[in-house]
Write a structure and sequence with these properties.
Pfam families: MaAIMP_sms. With about 30 residues, the protein is mainly α. The chain has one domain. Helix content is about 90%, strand content about 0%. It contains one helix and no strands. About 0% of the residues are buried.
C-alpha cells in the first residue's frame, strides 16, 4: 500500500472512532 492510502485509512478510522466515542459520551449527559 502507498503512504497516501495508509494515511487516508488512518484518518478515516480516526473520524469513525472519534464520532462513536463522542456519541457514547454525549448520550449520558443528555439523559441526566
Amino acid at each position: 500500500m502507498s503512504t497516501a492510502a495508509i494515511i487516508t485509512m488512518v484518518v478515516a478510522m480516526a473520524i469513525i472512532w472519534g464520532g462513536l466515542i463522542f456519541a457514547i459520551k454525549s448520550l449520558p449527559k443528555e439523559e441526566q
